[in-house]
Specification:
Layout lengths: L17 H15 L8 H15 L4 H8 L2 H6 L1 H8 L10 H21 L4 E7 L5 H15 L5 E8 L2 H9 L1 E3 L8 H7 E3 L7 E4 L1 H4 L2 E5 L13 E6 L8 H14 E9 L13 E4 L2 E3 L3
Parallel strand pairs: 1-2, 1-7, 2-6, 7-8
Antiparallel strand pairs: 3-5, 4-5, 8-10, 9-10
Helix pairs in contact: 2-5, 6-7
The chain binds S-adenosylmethionine.
Amino acid sequence: MAYTAYEDAEHGDAHLSDKDFRRLSEWIHANIGVCMGPEKKTLMEGRVKKRMRHLKIPSFQKYCEFVFSKQGKGEEAPFLIDAVTTNKTDFFREPAHFEYLNRTALPRLASRNASSGRNTFRIWSAACSSGEEPYTLAMVLQEYVDGMSGWDYTILATDISGTVLEKAGQAVYQDETIQPIPLPLRKKYLLKSRNPGNSIVRIVPELRAKVQLRKLNLIADAFDISGEMDVIFCRNVMIYFDRVTQEKLIQKFYQHLSPGGYLFIGHAESLSNLKTPFVYMAPTIYRKDG
Ligand SMILES: C[S@@+](CC[C@H](N)C(=O)[O-])C[C@H]1O[C@@H](n2cnc3c(N)ncnc32)[C@H](O)[C@@H]1O
């Protein structure tokens, strides 16, 4: 496809038209479940503009033509998804969840698993972004199993975005992001760059090996995940989905949890308006009966 240089953009449309915004937001909703109401138009415009600049596409209209062409659907879709999704995350984000996990959920799961002869915990960080959440879980779980002889754990970390999964795989973070990690855990589980000019850290290989990263779309009809999870963290993504999509997702989580397993959702999210069999345990923490 041939385009004129981006510098000629003043001849193109300066704003995303309502029609093109609708087409893009409908595509996003259908493919990843994220709702982009009219209030998100300026945000979409800004983010799409960056892609246009990168691709040297001179107008919003031409960008849409490209996105919806046969070639564009395959090539541009991952970039468009990256452009419109929010990847904000932190180590030990919403610390009360990790307290609850450590003090309440893991001890209960340990005695339940032990009674059925299983000495492992299976954890899933769904919508893991760049890895801070699954590596936080790995630190908490590692500390927990260190006190129990013969116990182990696995962490599945999934997201729709290849870009954040790649970052999670590198497990390299800027120094300023590690402040929420308690000092003793920093000493145990982070490696400092040998180059003093580089203010970066890396998660130790032992924890990296515990986290299995995988691309997974939460709005898929079914998840290709074998075995039951003991704990699912799905935080700060459902908030972007409509009610029907949320209900379907919660049903799927229910099926993938072991009886007595826990679901943790984001601080601004709730199951109270949804039809769900989950039992409320504490704010934003739910349990499957059994
Ligand atoms: C705000 S981050 C949340 C990260 C982490 N759970 C936390 O709470 O810190 C939301 C993540 O959801 C992912 N996401 C959005 N739609 C998704 C979908 N349909 N399937 C899987 N992941 C999705 C985004 O790529 C992004 O990384």
